[in-house]
Amino acid sequence: LHVDTMGTSSTTAVFRGRKQFLLVDARDGDKLCIGRPTRGLEYGVGNDSFQPDFAACPEAKKAKAMFADVKAGDILYIPGHMHYAERNLDHSLGISQNFLTIAD
Fold first, then answer.
1. Strands ordered across the beta sheet of 75-78
2. Mean pLDDT throughout 67-87?
3. CB atoms within 10 A of CB 88
4. Can you tell me the distance from the alpha carbon of 41 to that of 57, in angstroms, rounded to the nearest whole number?
5. Any bridge partners for residue 98, and if so which?
6. Which of 44, 40, 57 has its CA nearest to residue 84?
7. What DSSP character marks residue 17?
8. CA-to-CA distance for 67 and 46, rounded, in angstroms?
9. How far apart (Å, rounded) are the C-alpha atoms in residues 50 and 48?
10. Is 86 helix (H, G, I), strand (E, B) or coil?
11. Maximum CA extent, the chain
């Protein structure tokens, strides 16, 4: 899981294949154990955000999470400061763009 640079919002357009996104409410970021080691070199919920290590980060169970499956022809908007992870469900081609405004 990560937040985009400077907390910017972004869009992802998928041209081929499918992607899956895990989105966590920005207000729940403190429940994700990001930024502190849970064991060894792993941070937060572990190496695979889609299979979280709740034993290492039990407070992550309380975070509000959403999943979005995005297929060819779809565009996903991710609000600023939202924690998210993405993975390809098959061979995919897409493009992402971040938005930075003076207010950011």
1. 75-78, 9-16, 93-99
2. 94
3. 13
4. 14
5. 10
6. 44
7. S
8. 18
9. 5
10. strand
11. 41
Tell me 40's DSSP state.
Answer: T
Say which range, 4-13, 43-52, 76-85, has the weakest mean pLDDT. 43-52
* pTM for this predicted structure: 0.82
Contact status, residue 7 vs residue 82, Cβ threshold 8 Å: no
Strand residues in 6-101 grouped as ranges (E) = 9-16, 18-24, 37-39, 42-43, 65-71, 75-78, 83-88, 93-99
Per the CB < 8 A criterion, the answer to whether 78 and 22 are in contact is: no
Torsion angle of the four alpha carbons 26, 32, 36, 40, in this order, in degrees rounded to the nearest 10: -140
DSSP code at position 4: -
Length of the chain: 104
